[in-house]
């Protein structure tokens, strides 16, 4: 029995990607036998064509995905380059603005804050009176008590100054209180066990080293000064662990004499920030300040600036917007102008 003849539509043949142009342009009539009559060879051939067709489609799809991914990557790179160029341009503009401002913060190389130092001084005094600082209640002056013998009081002041180096006022004060409870006298410090003394001092900065210094100082005071502290600047400075800054404070508070300016790291930082000095160490700052600051201001400058640094002019993120001298301080002027520019940018956005 003969199977019916099936004629395929010409357009369906032409649209297939697996036929040549000449085939597509020719009307093809195919006689297909019943599937039951197909030979295994023809079945395999048909399946191969099907697989090839699917693979071709997958290949085309994969190429399309790769192209889209490549285009996306190229677009991201272009956007990143553009963003980087814009940021560089903004930084250059910011630097130019800062340089222009810097020129206005100095006259003949001298900062406005130094030229108008008295105005700066008076305004800092106002800010200090409005903001209580740790140094006001826990600083070296807090060891100057009137209810004890002068010789013992002077020893307390010396010990407090020794412990204050590289240590916050609150921690120093707490350590001195513990020592007083134990018995803060030269004789007690001579007999106390070093490990026990370290426990009383902890967590003062370098407490182990300071425990050694304190026992050596007690021995020197007992043998050379009848249990009292030395009377002169030079002799005090020669004691173990006592530097120039501490010596100035001890002489001023314990003996009531002003022989120099006590400069610690806080005073050093603020003096340079104001442009009062341009130095690298506290010792250099001390000499520079003493060269131009009137002597009647020497006794109070440490307390004034240290408290200012604790409340307003902090090492990181100083409160320039709340500072009364931000129109004279070089850092304040730059910070305030930069802040205005940032606000303008935000408004534009």
UniProtKB/TrEMBL annotation:
Bifunctional DNA N-glycosylase with associated apurinic/apyrimidinic (AP) lyase function that catalyzes the first step in base excision repair (BER), the primary repair pathway for the repair of oxidative DNA damage. The DNA N-glycosylase activity releases the damaged DNA base from DNA by cleaving the N-glycosidic bond, leaving an AP site. The AP lyase activity cleaves the phosphodiester bond 3' to the AP site by a beta-elimination. Primarily recognizes and repairs oxidative base damage of pyrimidines. Its cofactor is [4Fe-4S] cluster. It holds the Pfam family HhH-GPD. Belongs to the Nth/MutY family. Residues 163-311 form the HhH-GPD domain. GO terms for cellular component: mitochondrion; nucleus. CDD domains: ENDO3c. It comes from Dictyostelium discoideum. The lineage of its organism: Eukaryota, Amoebozoa, Evosea, Eumycetozoa, Dictyostelia. SUPFAM superfamilies: DNA-glycosylase. This is Endonuclease III homolog. Residues 66-76 have a biased composition (Basic residues). One of its GO terms (biological process) is nucleotide-excision repair. InterPro entries: DNA_glycosylase, Endouclease-III_FeS-bd_BS, HhH-GPD_domain, HhH_base_excis_C, HhH_motif, NTH1. Residues 85-94 have a biased composition (Acidic residues). GO terms for molecular function: 4 iron, 4 sulfur cluster binding; class I DNA-(apurinic or apyrimidinic site) endonuclease activity; DNA binding; DNA-(apurinic or apyrimidinic site) endonuclease activity; metal ion binding; oxidized pyrimidine nucleobase lesion DNA N-glycosylase activity. Its EC number is 3.2.2.-, 4.2.99.18. Keywords: 4Fe-4S, DNA damage, DNA repair, Glycosidase, Hydrolase, Iron, Iron-sulfur, Lyase, Metal-binding, Mitochondrion, Nucleus, Transit peptide. It is found in: Nucleus; Mitochondrion. Residues 54-94 are annotated as: Disordered. It catalyses: 2'-deoxyribonucleotide-(2'-deoxyribose 5'-phosphate)-2'-deoxyribonucleotide-DNA = a 3'-end 2'-deoxyribonucleotide-(2,3-dehydro-2,3-deoxyribose 5'-phosphate)-DNA + a 5'-end 5'-phospho-2'-deoxyribonucleoside-DNA + H(+).
